[in-house]
Amino acid sequence: MQTWSLVSMCVLLGIVVRWGVSLNSYSGAGKPPMFGDYEAQRHWQEVTYNLPLQEWYSNTTENDLNYWGLDYPPLTAYHSLVCAYVAKTINPEWVDLHKSRGYESPAHKLFMRATVLVADLLIYIPAVVLYCLYLTDGSTKKKVCTVFCFLLYPGLILIDYGHFQYNGVSLGFALWGVLALGLGWDALGSLAFCLALNYKQMELYHALPFFCYLLGKSVKLGLMGRGLFLLVRIASTVLVTFALCWLPFLSDPGDAMQVVRRIFPVARGLFEDKVANAWCSLNILIKIRSILSSDSQIYISFACTLLAVLPSCVRLLMKPTFWQFKLALVRGIQLIILPLFLKDGLLVPYAVTSLAFLFFSIYLLSALEHCSEEELRLGAFHKLLFCLPKLDLFYISVSAMAGLSVVTVALVPPTHLPDLFPVLVSSTAFLHFLGTFIYFNIVQFSEPPSRKSQKKND
Amino acid sequence: FQNNITNRKVTSFYTKALRKIHSTDFEVHRNWLAITHSLPVSRWYHENTSEWTLDYPPLFAWFELGLSHAARHFDPDMLLVENLNYASPSTVLFQRLSVIFTDLLFIYAARECCRCVQDQKGSRDVLNRPSFVLAVLLLWNFGLLIVDHIHFQYNGFLFGFLLLSVAKHLQRQHLQGALLFSVLLNLKHIYLYVAPAYGVYLLRSYCFTQDNKDGSVSWSSFSPLRLLALGGIVASVCALSFGPFIAMGQLPQVLSRLFPFKRGLCHAYWAPNIWALYNTLDKILATLGVRLKLLQEAGLPRASMTGGLVQEFQHSVLPSVTPSITLVCTLLSILPAVASIWFRPRGARGFLRCLLLCALGSFVFGWHVHEKAILIAILPLSILAVENREDAGIFLVLTTTGHYSLFPLLFTPAELPIKVSLMLLFTIYSFTALRKLYSGRGSLLRPLESVYLLGLVGVAFACEVAFPLSPWQQKLPFLPLLATSVYCSLGVCYSFLRLYASLLRPPGKPKQP
């Protein structure tokens, strides 16, 4: 069948799933006084619409930073402003200063959900489609299946359309950046990625690979000549983009510093809400929080993060191929956080989307022989974990996740360990993360798999 | 096929899991669960605490009774008759799960139908085989999805019986087919519309075991045994279903519940049939008459047809239509089809065509037709569409029109993206898949048909987007519904005529390009 029809069917299905999820409850629904992320986004619309720009990030009488103060970079604020203008035309009550706190209504929910869908349609979905069609190898069918799996990825759908966030925008921009780099348009790629960074500071996870790849590429082209020219072009693009985004705040350095303070709240601890990372898991064994002071925690975590990504970045510097770049990007995997979804009453959509995604990816990708053993370099992986054969490993991990999901829902944790299940979930997730991390390191450091990928080298 | 089944299951689960909105049909079925569970059998058809009285045949009531025993484990409170509009989360969960579960029968029936479809020889990959296309067209049918899983009914379950019965006839297992159809009739009596097709076909092709050389009936080959077998099957099923009520002498009461002719010619939203056109013509003539001073405005009956209420009403200018008139029209419309399979039987596929025509005929001319009834024609037509090129063209017109006419069923803004996306999904698939199936022999649609279908997009935009934002929204709120009805009825009537042409055309005559 023609590609366009298959792709449009995938996109339509993606839209149906997204909108279906969005009909469920959102973060903090009906839970005063603080509500949740949904109320945070609505509050930002209120703040950006009613207050002058300089006051958006500062603690004033009109703007109480303790009640969901802005803590994302300026592009998010501008996006909220645009949404606020639309909201004002539909129903001014939604963005009334102070009076609209905790505003909840079916029409408002529809509006907020619609803003997420519109943002996705404009930024994320086109990036996915173009990326899969132009930058993946294989037959048309394989590409369409990749689009399908990408669009149905449950984590993003549940967080954006269930919990309520705009991750699609920042991920979309980052993906446009990857797309541009893959096509050789380095300046545009850096522009897109800067936009992503200015939307959510979490994209810093991806910043190192971008930086190392572009730096490595410039070095390869020769620092006296084309390489230098490229470097200058990229640097100026980055500087101009940042300047444009931060322009209103640059008139007063105090404002800019306040924004930075809000974006990087180092006053908070190492981990919030039992997030799935190393620190949470390590905390089980050693009570880190009580041993180290807050400052040293920050330094150690920074150091460890840097150490963890250093090997791949060095490799990328030395061998700046697009394929290596993609592998390095995989570091920023989003992990599904079950307890968070439970809090928002999203259990059923979580179960359904995860099952569906799992099923589809297994069926589609294996049916297309995407995962042949050589390509995946699982031989090397086996040598590390020689005790467990490949298939069992996969099914063990799936059953572990399924079992944990069931247990978290069905059973009540013992009273002396009230957070047992969330911690178990994040530890399991971290183990998975660690496993894939090691695996991808192995892949990156072994030879490129086939001549097909060599074509991607620039 | 296994893949498709699981796809469908996942879809149903999605739609169920992600839909918390429920409709009046939901309350209807909850009420029936309560009635059958809490009350003795003698009270089932007399009970009217709720306005949604039991108006399906007794076998469906037994089915609801069975479901209610499972419902007890989810939320016993839903089984109290007094709990009108009770909709706790467990109730919703149970009801949705029951639809998904009973859909298993539909999946099985679809599989049987796919097995009857002749696959052409040649190395086609899976996605292009007629049986695969049919599977997708049946399992992912937009109309069925929104009526069953978003709106709420058990149509998947019932269509499972219909399709299974058709499949059995295609496989020449006529007794099983007859059994399944009698069960279906006793589950929902709307299928009486297609009973003439069954009756005549079975009589002609099953009871008369042989034909003469020229195709006419060979009276000497009549087999009373077969007739007795058929009669016995039908009678026993009906006895199982109606028996207790006949024994209690409640048959008239049951029948009055089953056939409530007090309802009006058209539903609140006019189904896209001939009477929609008739009503519109009447309205236009009335308005013109008043404008041209030919009629007195005071003498006209109040305009309640378009008020959205289900009442009896009179036409202003044209003669009023009574139930008997619609019955006569329906019978006249299906007579040629039925006669055709008597005098020129064309095997099981001829029977299928006749079934389609009976369903469509009764849709076009019937009394108080609901627009969901178009599915009775669309689903069996899918079988013909993957085998025959001309039928594929008719299928595209009828399906797109019929599915669009279901749009007013989902009228909240929250449902708009879903219904538009699902409709586009199904339409794109059906067009591209069927085009691929019959590639290389020109376009499936005639130019006029393409223009008509494109016009649907315009109508959709006008009704969903432009009209609600325009100043006429207050004065003429029924206008989008009217426009949808009228526009779709053109397509439906056109498809009816084309299907008739394909049935009555003598075999061997080449079709017009």
TrEMBL record, chain A:
Topology class, membrane: Multi-pass membrane protein
Statement: the UniProt record of this protein carries the keyword Endoplasmic reticulum: yes
Listed transmembrane segments: 110-132, 144-161, 173-197, 227-249, 298-318, 325-342, 348-368, 393-414, 420-442
GO molecular function, one term: dolichyl pyrophosphate Man9GlcNAc2 alpha-1,3-glucosyltransferase activity
EC assignment: 2.4.1.-
Chain's role: Dolichyl pyrophosphate Man9GlcNAc2 alpha-1,3-glucosyltransferase that operates in the biosynthetic pathway of dolichol-linked oligosaccharides, the glycan precursors employed in protein asparagine (N)-glycosylation. The assembly of dolichol-linked oligosaccharides begins on the cytosolic side of the endoplasmic reticulum membrane and finishes in its lumen. The sequential addition of sugars to dolichol pyrophosphate produces dolichol-linked oligosaccharides containing fourteen sugars, including two GlcNAcs, nine mannoses and three glucoses.
Protein name stated in the entry: Alpha-1,3-glucosyltransferase
Species of provenance: Sander lucioperca (Pike-perch)
Protein encoded by which gene: alg6
Automatic annotation (TrEMBL), chain B:
Documented EC number(s): 2.4.1.-
Bilayer-spanning residue ranges: 131-152, 190-207, 227-247, 325-343, 350-367, 450-469, 481-501
Membrane topology summary: Multi-pass membrane protein
Keyword Chaperone assigned: no
Listed GO MF terms: dolichyl pyrophosphate Glc1Man9GlcNAc2 alpha-1,3-glucosyltransferase activity
Pathway listed: Protein modification; protein glycosylation
Database matches in Pfam families: Alg6_Alg8
The name this protein goes by in its record: Alpha-1,3-glucosyltransferase
